[in-house]
């Protein structure tokens, strides 16, 4: 995945997490992904699989298109 796209995704996750008052642990739990994996996505260190992006969107109670609107 393009580095700038990963950075936009990381920023989106951070903004939404803060607006929902989720801790990193809570978001990881809600998204059913490991905290370490979430941390790597949030810092744009790792490519995110489609299923992980979908799970994160679901954790925020958003459609994928809403979540990726950045």
Question: Helix and strand layout, with pairings?
Answer:
Layout: H1 3-19, H2 24-31, H3 35-42, H4 50-59, H5 64-67
Helix pairs in contact: 2-3, 2-4
Structural account:
The chain is an all-alpha fold and 70 residues long. Helix content is 67%, strand content 0%. The protein has a single domain, classed as 434 Repressor (Amino-terminal Domain) (Orthogonal Bundle). Helix 2 (24-31) crosses helix 3 (35-42) and helix 2 (24-31) crosses helix 4. The protein is globular and about 25 Å long.
CATH homologous superfamily heading: lambda repressor-like DNA-binding domains
| Percent of residues in helices | 55-70%
Morphology: globular
Can you count the helices?
5
Q: Helix/strand/pairing class, anyone? A: mainly alpha
Number of domains: 1
SSE string? HHHHH
Overall CATH architecture: Orthogonal Bundle
Q: Which sheet architecture does the biggest sheet show?
A: none
The proportion of strand residues reads under 5%
| CATH topology description | 434 Repressor (Amino-terminal Domain)
Strand element count: 0
Distance between the termini: 16 Å
Highest-level CATH class: Mainly Alpha
Low-confidence stretches: none
Please tell me the overall pLDDT: 92
**Rg for CA atoms:** 11 Å
Features:
434 Repressor (Amino-terminal Domain), 70 residues, 67% helix, 5 helices, mainly alpha
Task: Put the structure in a nutshell.
67% of the residues lie in helices and 0% in strands. The chain has 70 residues and is mainly alpha-helical.
């Amino acid at each position: 995945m393009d580095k700038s796209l990963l950075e936009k995704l990381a920023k989106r996750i951070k903004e939404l997490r803060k607006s929902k008052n989720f801790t990193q642990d809570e978001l990881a739990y809600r998204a059913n992904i490991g905290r370490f994996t979430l941390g790597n996505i949030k810092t744009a260190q790792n490519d995110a699989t489609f299923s992980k992006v979908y799970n994160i969107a679901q954790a925020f109670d958003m459609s994928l298109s809403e979540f990726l609107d950045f």
